[in-house]
Automatic annotation (TrEMBL):
GO cellular component labels: plasma membrane
Location within or outside the cell: Cell membrane
Protein's UniProt name: C2 domain-containing protein
Lineage, opening ranks: Eukaryota, Viridiplantae, Streptophyta, Embryophyta, Tracheophyta
PANTHER family tied to this protein: C2 DOMAIN-CONTAINING PROTEIN, COPINE
Naturally occurring in which organism (per UniProt): Citrus sinensis (Sweet orange)
SUPFAM superfamilies given in the database record: C2 domain (Calcium/lipid-binding domain, CaLB), vWA-like
Keyword Ligase found: no
GO BP field: defense response
Keywords on record: Calcium, Cell membrane, Lipoprotein, Membrane, Metal-binding, Plant defense, Repeat
CDD domains per record: C2A_Copine, C2B_Copine, vWA_copine_like
Amino acid sequence: MLVVYMKARDGALVEVGRTEVVLNSLNPTWITKHIITYQFEVVQTLVFRIYDVDTQFHNVDVKTLKLVEQQFLGEATCTLSQIVTRKNRSLTLDLVRREETITPITEESNPSNRPKHCGKLTVHAEECINSKTTTELILRCSDLDCKDLFSRNDPFLVISKIVESGTHIPVCKTEVLKNETKPTWKSVFLNIQQVGSKDSPLIIECFNFNSNGKHDLIGKVQKSLADLEKLHSSGQGQNLFLSTAAGNNNHKILNSQLFVDKFSESVQYTFLDYLAGGFELNFMVAVDFTASNGNPRLPDSLHYLDPSGRPNAYQRAILEVGEVLQVYDSDKRFPAWGFGARPIDGPVSHCFNLNGSNSYCEVEGIPGIMMAYTSALHNVNLAGPTLFGPVISNAALIAGQSLANHGQKYFVLLIITDGVVTDLQETKDALVKASDLPLSILIIGVGGADFKEMEILDADKGERLESSTGRVASRDIVQFVPLKDVQNGEISVVQALLAELPSQFLTYMRTRDIQPST
């Protein structure tokens, strides 16, 4: 019998399910399937343990079996993303068993305490058909409360899923409609992989757009996809509400209503279909070396390297984002840059290779990024100002070359910065140009700066970016999160940052009619 576990946030193993017992076999093939919700933004570690069930228990329901009474044969560990990124979604693992020893002998001197290989386990995953279902929604509001003194609202919607901790993660948003109190937005698309299940609660918030990034909440509703389907069938509206100061359970019901004008389900290619078809995510990183980070030799610097080995904010961001994304990149050679520093005996550079090379920018794996970062701190002088344009243009150049060569690659650039950009319009121009390429940009703000202006780059709560020539971005490719906003909550920065990446990927593929090879 095989037992499947998943590692929880605190490292504890949570049992997912058990297979049936296969009698008298050294080469069992189990047929029991276990359904696990795939979450792109989380590293989901699976542990498989195999037990020899004693003859006296053969007719007992496997759910009631006490595992301590069965003989442990071996275990294997992997992440769910390692399985789904395989071409045929099958992964073969070595089963190991560590023998317990009674006498306190060190592992080096006691070969019996080393893991013993005791067979192989092949795990196969397939995507449930309901997770391939994409729902198209056309949403409308009526009688919105006016938030502007001298004009009507400029409303838009943000749809968020609720994670275990109760925190909201945005997964989808509409365009901004100007001067509307009865807006009808263009279609939005949601799939089960984004929201969890058809019965998972969603928060739909209606905001009034403000150009300074401080948008007014007009009202909200909490509904699942199943609830929205019922609303559509009934033709009725749902009143928006606002939480009162007395607490989350006390709501002020508004006259404004949300209507579902269209609810249509169709089977479409999913993010996992593209992975199985050979598409990869290629990770890139750019680190802010401007002087506002503080002297790296002093403990109050954001770049301070703690002798105890405790990672600073930059190292944490690289490790946490890299841990999730590296699985989707087969060669694990990552372009890594720095900006805003003066290399020894040189002028200030706004895009230099983190490894110190003049000819190539790639490093080997996440450890390679960490080593190059540490080395760069000793070989550059922090300067300024904070310019994103050159780094974004370099990433766009690599993505453009891959596109020209018909590569099955989608690029993800992580920018870690301690300050607001000083080349805002140049950055907007670079982002609008890059929106036509297979590229997404994740920005983490570290330190205590006011990052409100940075939210303008992230179209989650605002309009699409516009270049200096008036050209509008073809899609939203930026996701921004300040480290300080979520470090005290249950949700990790990585979850908040990566949650929208699969939908950005799918938007790019679908608008260009790129289909995965089967």
